[in-house]
Amino acid sequence: MGRGSGQARLLATVALLALSGCGFLGGLGAGNGGIRTPGALDSLTPEQIYTRGEQSLESGQEDDAAFLFSEVERLYPYSEWAKRGLIMAAFSYHRDGDYENARGAAQRYLDFYPAGEDAAYAQYLLALSYYDQIDDVGRDQGLTFQALQALRAVIEVYPDSPYAADAMVKFDLAFDHLAGKEMEVGRYYLKRGNYTAAINRFRAVVEDYQTTRHTPEALHRLVEAYLALGLTDEAQTAGAILGANYQDSEWYRDSYALLTGQGLRPQATGDNWLTALYRQVVLGREL
């Protein structure tokens, strides 16, 4: 089966499972009681176990579904049913919110079947298992970095897959999330008068996350912090970059008011990291 047909099959399966009350497995009998009893599934064919997994998934029993799909792999390793069971186990774990096991199953699929028809979906599930745990900027950002790495793999390794476009959107959001974390910490230092530490955070946003929505505010905060330290060349240059790129923003208006209130104006002046950045991003010269 080719990659296109395999992805189509998987997408169709997931779409069907998302429908409630469709009853397409109604003839298989009720429930999965006792499925975890040792030896309970040994007499069943891989197709029968797999079908019970689909039934559990349709009825909202994701934990049971993940167990059944995993049992297909355990009892019938390296079979075509094991291959299908492994990707569906990853999907079931993810839908159940068991992200660690979802990652494990998705990674096993990639390790065992790197050229499999569902490899792109396995990589996408792996990325989602990190991405869906990014819930607020106040938490440790290790998961965000891992999400970015996994999403990049979807985009670069599987650019023609049905998941690449969504991976790109999520990559941009996760990238923005990291910039938001830097801004949060920078504001914390700025408010407490720790201007050097604040500048380091805002500089990281301007240099490393300049395509995010946080860049205008970061430049304004640099104006504030440098003025507080009496470093007028840096403050004016930050204002000049802000004016050249975000002249209609509230942040430029605030920076302009701060600078002119002290007899200064937004202009590139002095010899510092911001004038080098000004030459690069405004004048288009090499650093």
TrEMBL record:
Membrane topology: Lipid-anchor
InterPro entries, A to Z: BamD, BamD-like, TPR-like_helical_dom_sf
Location, primary (coarse class): membrane
One Pfam short name: YfiO
SUPFAM superfamilies per record: TPR-like
Any one of the GO BP annotations: Gram-negative-bacterium-type cell outer membrane assembly
Domain Outer membrane lipoprotein BamD-like: 45-238
Gene Ontology CC: one annotated term: Bam protein complex
Key words of the record: Cell outer membrane, Lipoprotein, Membrane, Palmitate, Signal
Subcellular location: Cell outer membrane
CDD domains: BamD (cd15830)
Family: Belongs to the BamD family.
Alphabetical list of NCBIfam families matching this protein: OM_YfiO
Subunit structure, as described in the record: Part of the Bam complex.
HAMAP family attached to this UniProt entry: OM_assembly_BamD
Purpose: Part of the outer membrane protein assembly complex, which is involved in assembly and insertion of beta-barrel proteins into the outer membrane.
Protein name per its UniProtKB record: Outer membrane protein assembly factor BamD
Organism: Rubellimicrobium mesophilum DSM 19309
